[in-house]
Amino acid sequence: MSQEKPRRPEQEPIKYGDIFNVSGDLSSQPIAPRDAATMQSAEDRTLDHARKDGPASLMTSAAQKNEDAGFIDNNTATNIARNEGVAVSEINNGGKRVITETLGGQVLGKYEEDADGAKGTKDANSKHAGLRAV
């Protein structure tokens, strides 16, 4: 007989405020699959790849857990993502690339890398990523 503790079912969905340092309406919204896919697409378009440690990756994992627990379906998107959008921007600043990822105008991730692609400090603005601010 297994001595494993039975898994307790999730009582509520994972929300943006559980993962990211955001406020207002965004904080209380469940992380949705369509939001994650939109962020993934924005990362792909801007950076030519998705960051393994970026907001899209965190959002995808959380959205999958929300879907698996039955809180949302795979076509769900928040009104904030739908109406205010997601953005990934990159600027070069003195030999450094500064990448900022936003949802509804709130920063989900900000990274600094050397212009040659070497990673510098990063801040996923995540409560769980263990990353520090730029």
Automatic annotation (TrEMBL):
Please list the residue ranges that the record marks as compositionally biased, kind Basic and acidic residues. 1-15, 42-53, 113-126
* Pfam families, sorted: SMP
Return the annotated region ranges for Disordered.
1-53, 113-134
Asked whether the keyword Metal-binding is assigned, the reply is no
In terms of InterPro entries, this protein maps to: LEA_SMP (IPR042971), LEA_SMP_dom (IPR007011)
Q: Where is the signal peptide?
A: none
Chain ranges of the SMP domain: 14-68
**In the UniProt record, does the keyword Repeat occur?**
yes
Which family, according to UniProt? Belongs to the LEA type SMP family.
Indicate what this protein is called per its UniProt record. Seed maturation protein
Gene designation: 11405276
